[in-house]
């Protein structure tokens, strides 16, 4: 299935000059959503993950669904202040400034095999931060995957673990 045909692009969102790839249209089409979930499950299965970590917020939809298919656990990586209970944080550099992501402190068991999922990989900054945080908590990050990758931004080079994207946008 041509998943690109089910993802709409929205110019100038969230700010002028940005072309946003919106997966909500893919989610609304059952056959396309099934194809995306099945494709990610097949890409992730060889890593034998015990836990999938989804990056806020569309990554939650991806990781939770794939974890159900694989029979693995699921944990959320969120922006600071959004998770209840004790959390661990990681602050990372953006092009201009910094951002902080966090996990619940008990989300990762030492040595646990983890794959990190999101809907889209752009610059790779948030994915790299997720990998750093999970690794710092003792998780063994064995892979990462997304539905789409903006290859022209070079984010894959920042990931540092085996990475799979179902589709690529080259410009």
How would you characterize the overall build of this protein?
It contains 5 helices and 9 strands. By secondary structure, it is an alpha/beta fold. It has a single domain, classed as Rossmann fold. The strands form 2 sheets. A 7-stranded mixed beta sheet has the order 5-6-4-3-7-8-9, sandwiched between helices. Helix 2 packs across helix 3. The radius of gyration is 15 Å and the shape is globular. The model has no long low-confidence stretch (mean pLDDT 96).
Helical content stands at 25-40%
User: What ranges have pLDDT less than 50 throughout 5 or more consecutive residues?
Assistant: none
How many helices? The count is: 5
Can you tell me the overall shape? globular
Element string (H = helix, E = strand): EEHHEHEEEEHEHE
Q: CATH topology, what is it called?
A: Rossmann fold
| Side-by-side strand order of the widest sheet | 5-6-4-3-7-8-9
Total strand segments: 9
The tally of structural domains comes to 1
What top-tier CATH class fits best? Answer: Alpha Beta
Architecture in CATH?
A: 3-Layer(aba) Sandwich
How much of the sequence lies in strands comes to 35-45%
State the end-to-end CA separation: 21 Å
The profile of the biggest β sheet is: 7 strands, mixed
Main features:
171 residues; alpha/beta; Rossmann fold; seven-stranded mixed sheet; two-stranded antiparallel ribbon; globular
Please render the helix and strand layout as text:
Elements (H helix, E strand, L loop, with lengths): L7 E4 L7 E4 L1 H4 L2 H15 L6 E5 L2 H13 L2 E7 L7 E8 L2 E8 L8 E9 L3 H12 L3 E11 L5 H4 L3 E7 L2
Parallel strand pairs: 3-4, 3-7, 7-8, 8-9
Antiparallel strand pairs: 1-2, 4-6, 5-6
Helix pairs in contact: 2-3
């Amino acid at each position: 299935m041509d998943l690109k045909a089910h993802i709409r692009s929205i110019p100038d969102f969230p700010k002028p000059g940005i072309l946003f790839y919106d997966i909500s249209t893919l989610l609304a089409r059952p056959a396309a959503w099934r194809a995306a979930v099945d494709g990610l499950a097949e890409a992730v299965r060889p890593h034998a993950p015990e836990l999938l970590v989804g990056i806020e917020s569309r990554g939650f939809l991806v990781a939770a669904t794939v974890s159900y298919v694989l029979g693995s656990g699921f944990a959320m990586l969120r922006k600071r202040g959004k998770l209840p209970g004790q959390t661990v944080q990681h602050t990372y550099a953006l092009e201009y400034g910094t951002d902080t992501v966090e996990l619940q402190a008990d989300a990762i068991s030492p040595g646990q095999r983890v794959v990190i999922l999101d809907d889209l990989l752009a610059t790779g900054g948030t994915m790299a931060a997720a990998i750093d945080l999970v690794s710092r908590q003792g998780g063994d990050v064995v892979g990462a995957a997304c539905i789409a990758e903006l290859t022209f931004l070079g984010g894959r080079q920042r990931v540092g673990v085996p990475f799979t994207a179902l589709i690529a946008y080259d410009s």
